[in-house]
Design a protein that fits this description.
single chain; alpha+beta; Arc Repressor Mutant, subunit A; 3 helices
């Protein structure tokens, strides 16, 4: 059973449906202990009589229900109060086209000097090492 807009909050409703109805009627977020205390009071129970495990179980159930939204600092509101997420547009960049392979047809294409066997190589200013 779900609480509608015009529903009356009846003690026989499930805890989470009552919490939803109370938040809906309140129109703004509530601190979770305040909300729990109000729901339990409607059901004829006192939050002070609940142990930590029972509060944790209620909180876990509350947290797992898709109708509720944690707004921070222990306050909870309704998910329906949140603005709808805008569609995201994802732009995928195309990989740059590969450069065509440069075909090497001769040693001249490499920019290297060809030295015949037995001929001395010309000295390079950047590398003036002597070879024995």
């Amino acid at each position: 059973m779900s609480v509608g807009v015009d529903s009356v909050l009846e003690p026989g409703l499930p805890f989470l449906d009552l919490a939803y109805g109370m938040l809906h009627n309140e129109g703004s977020p509530l601190y979770y202990r305040e909300l729990f205390a109000r729901v339990l009071a409607l059901k004829g129970e006192d939050i002070a009589q609940l142990g930590p495990e029972q509060i944790a179980a209620l909180y876990t159930d509350f947290n797992l229900d898709h109708r509720f939204h944690h707004v921070g600092e222990g306050e909870w509101g309704l998910l329906e109060w949140q603005p709808r997420a805008k569609s995201r547009v994802v732009v995928v960049a195309q990989a740059p086209k590969a450069r065509p392979e440069r075909r090497i047809e001769s040693m001249d294409d490499l920019g290297l000097a060809v030295v015949e066997e037995g001929e001395p190589a010309e000295a390079n200013e950047e590398n003036e090492e002597e070879w024995d």
